[in-house]
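Table S7 (text form). Paired inputs.
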Amino acid sequence: MQGFIHIFKLDKNYTYDVDIEAILKRYKAPSLNVFETKNENITSVYFTNEYTEYPYGLTETGMFTPVGIFTREIEEIKNSLMNSEAPDKLNYVRNLEGQFAIGYSDYISNQINVFTHVARIETVYAFTSNDSIIIGTDPLIISLIATNGNVDFSLPALHSFILNGYYADDGTPFKDVYALPGNSHIKVDENGLEINEIDNLYSNLLNKEYGKSDYDDLTDLFINAFNTQPKDKEFRLALTGGKDSRLIFAAMNSNNFDLSVFTNGFDDNPDVVIAKRIADMYELEHRSTSPKISEENTISVNIYSKIKRVMLATSGMVYGYENVGSLGKFTGHKSFDGIGAELVKGGFANFINADENSNKLKLVNTFNRNHQLLKNGKDNPFGDFLLDFIDDEQGLHKLQILYSLKYRTGRLTSAAKNAANYSRQSHSPFLDNKFLREALKIQYADNKNEEIHYQIMKRIDKRLIDIPFAKDRWRVEKTKPMTAGDYDNWLNRQPYYPSTVLGNYNWRRVQNNDKVIIKQFKDILLSNPNHIIYQIIDYKAVNKMISGTIKANHMRFIWSLASIIIFVNELTDVSNRTFNKDVNVTLPSTSVSDYKNKKKIVDLTNDFLPLNKSIDISDD
């Protein structure tokens, strides 16, 4: 894990009255090593649990603070950025591989410079005032510095979180602390904070028609994205019956990684069957783990503790429903994952059929759900933000990709990965800065139809094209083969379906209406009608909702509201410990039933009769 904080004094008399190392170790992790340097205008802090000494050279003239995963040597990146003119810096970052945020202070020119990733997968935040500008990778720590250890919350910013479970805009829960844009160069000096786009990609998405040589080059970029990890150790890759893990497998195999694969599922599960077939083809070890079929039993859960753990680990950025662990020590474990792949195969699933004529209000309605639970007469700045976002000449099909890029990957995914990075390092090649920049230029029809996955797979190892997927096909050939000559192979690629389906019970789904779970949520949500959150949320409406039958569309709201209540309580030392307790939840027996939605293609071509003599019938 790596992070940074840079503070620029606009007022020479400005001082902050907190020990930055102490608050990092208190609010994040005791295992952090903190390195600090300063001059009369700038204070720079680099913190990490991966190194015991500052690893990037001398700091007399400034501090270099890279965060993320790179394919190039850090020293080369440092020299290229700190010793070049502005246009050269932008061009360098535009072509830089990996997933990152890069900052550095320059004590000679009295500047702070920060460069952000195209999908801001390592999000950078800022606080600005007349006295100072604080910029860094953790919004909670920035807020604590700005307020001298007294957290100041922003109620208007909480709308987005409560409705979605993460900040689906540029806000944070902290007053005057906000997320800086991706694909940007941020400069801080005596004139303030200045933001410039690295290039105009955001306004020129999905417009380029790709040809064979273009896909050849894109394949090379994808393969090169795996150079973020060394090849001197064995990688255990989770391989399923889906497209993302197969493409990652293909690229790792072509890169000569030492691989073994594993899959979770029963023996007849398509994921297991298909993964084993692939492993056998490459003579690789494959292991599978069958889910445990349990009798009716009880488990002990602590909703308050779970929410507290997730919210503190992510500095309040991700709601407690998600499975995010506590901030532990760095184990050195490195891996690859498929996070962000949706950006190059159509974006959000419920917008997959959108085009330039689709009603853009669908995006507003999707993310502004449950707004009726907001207090009457109170503004909804998040709803206004969404309306401003769709006020754009681009159609819904492109806007939803841009929204996913900036506000799902750039907020939810980023915050969750940042917490996970405390203990391990995982890289998604789909979010490689250079690959993603190029892939996002490709026309939307190719993006939506999974042409990018298909063309890369075909170039890496064509054999993997002809192995079927679990309950799915390549979208590019969903209804028919791409060429007449590929008809037989297309038939053989029909989706593989399971014989049975496992009915797992997820206790986190409040729509199960488990009385014990609902009771604990009710205690948390209704314990204090004077909680600051009820200045913008209608307490009576919440009471009515939680006291009735909980529906699926309420789940995210309930978890989000409980998360904010607990987070505020914990940071203001008014936590109600009464609700921080274990409860026993009854789990029903695991159900195993027949899979009933199998689809089979019937080949009728042998029954066709020619309509003219130009078609011959042969018995051969």
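Next pair, protein 2 of 2.
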Amino acid sequence: MADQNRRKRRAQARSPVDIAQIAALIDRGAHEEALRLSRDGLAANPNAQELLEAAGVAAVMLARWDLARRYFVKLTGLAADDVRHWMRLGYILFSSGDMKGASKAYAAAIERAPGEPEFRVNRALCEVRLGNLDAAETLFQAALKLAPSHPGALQGLSNIYREIGQPFEAMGYLRRLAETDQPRGVDFWVEYGELAMSTYDVPDVRRALAQASEPAAGDANLSARLAHLWNRIGEPEKALACVRRARSLAPDDAEIANEEATMNIDAGDTAAAAAIYRENIERHPDHASSYFGLSQVVKFSADVPDHAALVETMEAALKRRLSDPVFVHFGLAKAYNELKDPVRAFEHAKRGNASRFRQYPYAPARDRTKLAALKAAYRAGGFDTDVKPVAAGAPSPIFITGMPRSGTTLVEQFLGAHPLVAACGEMMLLPFVLATHCPAADALPATPQAARIGEIYRAQLAALTQGKPRGTDKLPSNIWNVGAILSAMPDARVIIMERDPLDVGLSCYFSLFRRGVNFTFDLASIGAYQRMCDDIAAHWLAVFGDRVLRVRYEDLIADPDAGMRRVLDYCGLEWHPDVARFFEVRRRVGTASFNQVNQPIYSTSVGRWHAYESQLKPLIDALADKNEAPPVAGA
């Protein structure tokens, strides 16, 4: 029987194979049969190119990458000038994860067909996967020279510029893609809106929302992302409607539930947020950020039995396999602090911060280098400091800078209550503009460059101020950009907040930041960073004099009326009674200070560090260390 089967296979191998029949099988999706027939034919004629190609295509359709690779490698040897074989080999290698091999195959295709943009785009995608963004950018640009509206090249360049922190450049390519005839689905418009939001281009965000809102209605994830965009542009009702639709589509999604809670907080409804967090904890007891979220909307008191039960629940949660225990540690740190138990509060803060610091260590050397460069670039009398007129209708920015947790949010809130001021929150707008138009941000920009920076910043700010002549930007780290600010926008106002360094340090240590301020996860690092902030603040005051206003948090708390009037005078604003009632105005805060600024000014945060003095030695030592020793990880 075995001999009979062997004779049958040899007879089949000798019979001619109908290549048209194999092609028809591939077209019908009968890939296994097509592959079998192709291999039968190759047994008799191993160099038959049509059969090698058919076998390779069938193997590709079956995702049998090693087999497909073998056939097309052989084809590129037999017919090296046939660009189709190199193209398919590139696809096979890319699909199987061999990016280096795929890039070489596409390079061979480009050599044989230099006028075909698709091969350059495909090779660029390989280089992106390999982390060679410069090479990928060159290839995408070359593809655009051949085909200026090539969607893959436009999308690829947008992705690269977004990856390297230049969203303005990224947005330019995405706008070009939006103008092509390429069909664009809802995913594209959501991405478009998110990128536009990163450049604070509100009109473009609204354009994306108009295109995406209806098509996204049946998709929970897209609806949640759209809700975030509505929230960011100050449309809380639309944001809540969108996120509630997302929850109805995915009722078991803990992250979407937390998004709804956050949007309720931004809308001023902390009770609704607390209810959502409690429900989420009940349904998803391993979802750590829900415990943290609930802890932030509760003012813990020993007189409320429910609060003691919540603390017990959070302590018990740490014995579970949580998604990220750090959230619970920070929640308990806040709870025990408010319950006047500093030992337990600090222990949880220490454990949470130690975990984050291991993940995201802080290296002060880079900031020290930047500090020295800024002091060298900006010297008193070294450049024009005259305030020049700005275009009619262009908003004048008010920058509120300093250490995190130094009172920046409080100042923005009472300024934002003034009818002539729009509170725009913490914006990455200026760092992004500088990254695009002044890469050496520690160097003095040339006059035309500075003017361009100012124009771009004001154009984006105008969409947020909605006709108001002033807009605030309270990104604390803009303290490093004061020289660039006053070079680019001489009419700008710059407020530098100061607060007792031990209170600031403790508050930073008890706050779970999510935006890469890694120094806050370690007491010695906080001290090292704060010393540099003090140094650069003193330098700006020496260079710019009364064009910069120093505001001490403790003075503002001690005499709010006098402090507010002083800030308003500096900003060229007359007193308005709404300023004193700033806490009655509900607006999105979006920072760790959302609870504090929605109530009248209070003094309980002044001198808070005394209760933790024994635990703050690494911070105290770092603040006093003239040698600026490197921080101790996990202190």
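The chain has a mean pLDDT of 90.
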